[in-house]
C-alpha cells in the first residue's frame, strides 16, 4: 500500500497533475503499472481519510493542548516509529513545521499503514503527504520540502 501512496504522490499530487480522475480509471491505471488491487484499494482508503482531515470531517485525537507537554508513544506506535522517527517528529515540532494537531494526524496516518517495515525516509514522505493536503499549512509543507530536497549536509536533527 505504501508503494501505491508514494507513486500517487510523486506522479499526481506532487507534480500537480490533474487529479480529477474517477476511482475506477485510477484503479485500472495503477493496476496497469503493476500494483495489486488490494493495495490500491487500501491506499485510496488511506487518502480518503486524509481528505477527511482536510475537509474537517475528522480531527486527530490528542489529550492535551499544552505545548509544553510531552508525547508518550504507545507500545504499538513505538514499534512502528523507531527512535529516529520519534526524534525527527520532535525536531519538526521544535522548528515549527509540525504542531500538536499535525503531529497527531501524521501518527494516525502512519498507524493506518499496513506495514511494519517503516523507516525515517517513509516518515518524511508521510509528513509531506499530510501537510500537502491541509489548507493553511503551505509554509510548513514548504519547510518540510526544503528539509528533504535541500542537499545541505549541515541540516541535522
UniProtKB/TrEMBL annotation:
For this protein, the record's Pfam families field holds: DUF494 (PF04361)
Q: Which domain of life is it from?
A: Bacteria
Q: Which InterPro entries match?
A: Smg
Q: What family classification does the UniProt entry report for this protein?
A: Belongs to the Smg family.
Q: Which NCBIfam families match?
A: PRK03430.1
Name of this protein: Protein Smg
- Species annotation: Candidatus Erwinia haradaeae
Q: What is the lineage of its organism?
A: Bacteria, Pseudomonadati, Pseudomonadota, Gammaproteobacteria, Enterobacterales
Q: Which gene encodes it?
A: smg
